[in-house]
Amino acid sequence: SAKCAACLPGFSLEDGKCVKNKCHCDHGVGSTGAECAARDGRKCASCDEGYYVSDLECKLKVCVCEAGEGATAKECIQHGALVCGKCKDGFSKLATLCLPNE
């Protein structure tokens, strides 16, 4: 059978055959084909719930909160958003914010 000498972008040479590249991704789905520059590379196509794609990898969503601790992962709607997970003493949570106790 014929053997390949070179492959198109998104494929790597393996035992004389062109095989579609598959990237690895922690906390998500790895890119494939032309979206994955090298076989066994690291690049995420999408992320699990609670994570977002940044610099080719999936990072934990972390929100901010002025009067407590920012929510993380699934509780954080969008990375960097104002969503409180836990309030400081003297504050109570109302929806996504920490408001002073009266």
Short recap of the structure:
With 102 residues, this protein is mainly β. It has strands at 11-14, 17-20, 28-30, 44-47, 51-54, 57-60, 68-70, 84-87, 91-94, 97-100. It has no helices and 10 strands.
Please tell me about this protein's structure.
The chain is an all-beta fold and 102 residues long. Helices cover 0% and strands 37% of the residues. It starts with 10 loop residues before the first strand and ends with a strand. The mean pLDDT is 93.
Keywords:
single chain, about 100 residues, mainly beta, 10 strands
Sheet of most strands: 2 strands, antiparallel
Strand content: 35-45%
The overall average pLDDT, rounded, is 93
Shape: rod-shaped
Topology, element by element:
Layout: E1 11-14, E2 17-20, E3 28-30, E4 44-47, E5 51-54, E6 57-60, E7 68-70, E8 84-87, E9 91-94, E10 97-100
Antiparallel strand pairs: 1-2, 3-4, 5-6, 7-8, 9-10
